[in-house]
Amino acid sequence: MRDLIKAFKALSDETRLRMINLLIEGECCVCEVMQALDISQTRASRNLNILYDAGFLKMRKEGLWSHYSMDKERLGSFLPLLINAVEQGIKDNDIAAMDRERLKTAKRLGADGVKCCLK
């Protein structure tokens, strides 16, 4: 029951739903999420960690940078159903569509403008 409550709490925020929308497309660096959603690094990292702790995401480190993607192996029996519900719920949403478009032009850059990784 605890895992289910944690999952619903993680999905109860617009920013995190928008992040799921991006991560359904594939792996994203924190800097790409920042650019696509036009949010700060602190806000992006905090919300990505909430999704990670709830079991939706996996993370890999590359130097100082963190890269997140959907964790299909870790997802419990009910989490894929929730992801599918989110995907269906936002598929015709204008904000979600704009986020996906901005993601296409996002650059993997650190705060100091240095490339964090090759894409």
Supply the key terms:
about 120 residues; 3-stranded antiparallel β-sheet; mainly alpha
Could you give a short description of this structure?
With 119 residues, the protein is mainly alpha-helical. The chain has helices spanning 2-10, 14-25, 30-37, 41-53, 79-90, 94-105; strands at 28-29, 57-62, 65-70.
What do these coordinates show?
This protein is mainly α and 119 residues long. Helix content is 55%, strand content 12%. It has six helices and three strands, in the order H-H-E-H-H-E-E-H-H. The chain has helices at 2-10, 14-25, 30-37, 41-53, 79-90, 94-105, and strands spanning 28-29, 57-62, 65-70. A three-stranded antiparallel sheet has the order 1-3-2. Strand 2 and strand 3 (65-70) form a beta hairpin. Helix 2 (14-25) packs across helix 5, helix 2 (14-25) packs across helix 6 (94-105) and helix 3 (30-37) crosses helix 4. The radius of gyration is 14 Å and the shape is globular. The protein starts with a helix and ends in a 14-residue tail after the last helix. The mean pLDDT is 87.
